[in-house]
Design a protein that fits this description.
Blueprint: H1 9-20, H2 22-29, H3 36-42, H4 68-78, E1 84-86, H5 90-102, H6 105-114, E2 115-122, E3 128-134, E4 140-146, H7 155-164, E5 167-168, H8 171-176, E6 177-182, H9 189-206, H10 214-218, E7 233-235, E8 238-239, E9 262-263, H11 267-275, H12 288-304, E10 310-315, E11 318-323, H13 329-335
Parallel strand pairs: 2-4, 5-9
Antiparallel strand pairs: 1-2, 3-4, 6-10, 7-8, 10-11
Helix pairs in contact: 6-9, 7-9, 9-12
């Protein structure tokens, strides 16, 4: 069964969004070219005044029908023509509420104050996306986009598809090489979407990485690197030399950036590099924002929710590699430098 180009998350959002908002970047890097006010007027999906927001409402009550301007924005970003608003059933809302309840307390506190709305989009090419919304004072709020299909597939199935989308396959390699991601069977893919995308929201609001988007850096909404980033990233998507590994620059997902670019026969080489790097996943190695979100997601998923996270490479029926990054000391050492409280208590 094919799951359509799953989980763009922030990687593909950045790739497409950076092109769409080049005018916003220019308006801050070239004084007087385009004003902040003109940017907001030209980009209704990022303009706070175009949404209804009640900070006292329950998060589940912020599920709403996606406005037309948001659908058009997402279609333009993804070169899609068939997006549509979707309203979850009562059963689906119950599942969403259960998963919201699993989030760290610190996340819930931030979401209460800064999450404007949750919008489900039919035929969405990704699994989910967090995006920023700015008010007239340049305060950052956020929105959450969710593909309703994430509620209909298991997390392991979903992430196995994502992992395999990195590789070009031929008849020989496809029959002898298998890549799978084991995250257990307790949760649907929605659990991953919420953990990963709300980690981006925490980053947007609290600046745990210097900037999630270059456009925010150019607006002055960025900060110096914290210890989590130091000695790992030179810039948004360029790691320091010691953190880099062969084929990393060719990593793509779901056909974006003219991918896939890596032959499946090179999977062993790619994963051998990953295992010697400071990253917890191929996805997290693509840029500093994804690095942060993947660390937060998998730490919480394995430690607080008690679920497995392992990547398995099998060749001719024999396990060539089983990578469990959250059990490695050099990964756990880096986690200690995170400036965010991830425990359920938030203490």
């Amino acid at each position: 069964m094919e799951i359509r180009k799953l989980n763009r998350s922030r990687l593909t959002a950045f790739l497409a969004f950076g092109v769409a908002l080049v005018g916003f970047s220019a308006c801050f890097s070239t004084p007087g070219k385009i004003s902040f006010e003109r940017f907001l007027a030209a980009n209704p999906a990022n303009n706070f005044k175009n949404y209804h927001f009640d900070s006292s409402s329950r998060l589940i009550d912020r599920v709403a029908k996606a406005p037309d301007f948001l659908i058009r924005y997402l279609e333009n970003m993804d070169h899609a023509e068939d997006y549509g608003a979707y309203l979850p059933s009562s059963k689906e809302l119950d599942e969403l509420q259960r998963y919201i309840n699993l989030l760290p307390k610190s996340y819930l506190l931030t979401l209460q104050q800064r999450l404007v709305g949750i919008y489900f989009i039919n035929n969405y090419i990704g699994s989910g996306m967090a995006d920023f919304v700015l008010d007239s004072n340049r305060a950052i709020y956020t929105i959450l986009i969710v593909n309703p299909e994430t509620m209909r597939h298991g997390i392991s199935e979903w992430l196995t598809y994502r992992e395999n989308s990195c590789f070009m396959k031929n008849v020989t390699s496809a029959s002898s090489i298998r890549i799978s991601v084991d995250c257990g069977s307790q949760y649907s893919a929605l659990a991953y979407v919420l953990l990963h995308e709300t980690s981006h929201i925490m980053d947007y609001v609290h600046h745990h990485t210097p900037y999630v988007e270059r456009v925010l850096r150019d607006s002055g909404l960025s900060k110096m690197a914290d210890p989590f980033q130091k000695h790992v990233w030179d810039s948004l998507n360029v790691p320091v030399r010691n953190a880099d590994f062969p084929l990393r620059e060719d990593i793509t997902f779901y056909g974006f950036r003219n991918g896939p670019k890596i032959p499946l026969s090179q999977a062993s080489k790619l994963y051998n590099g990953l295992m010697k790097s400071p990253f917890v996943s191929l996805y997290g190695s693509t840029d500093s924002g994804e690095d942060f979100a993947e660390y937060c997601t998998w730490w919480y998923f394995t430690t607080e929710l008690g679920q497995p996270y392992r990547i398995i490479l099998t060749i001719n029926g024999k396990t060539e590699m089983m990578y469990e990054p959250m059990k490695l000391k050099y990964i756990s050492d880096r986690l200690q430098s995170l400036s965010i409280q991830l425990s359920r208590s938030g203490e």
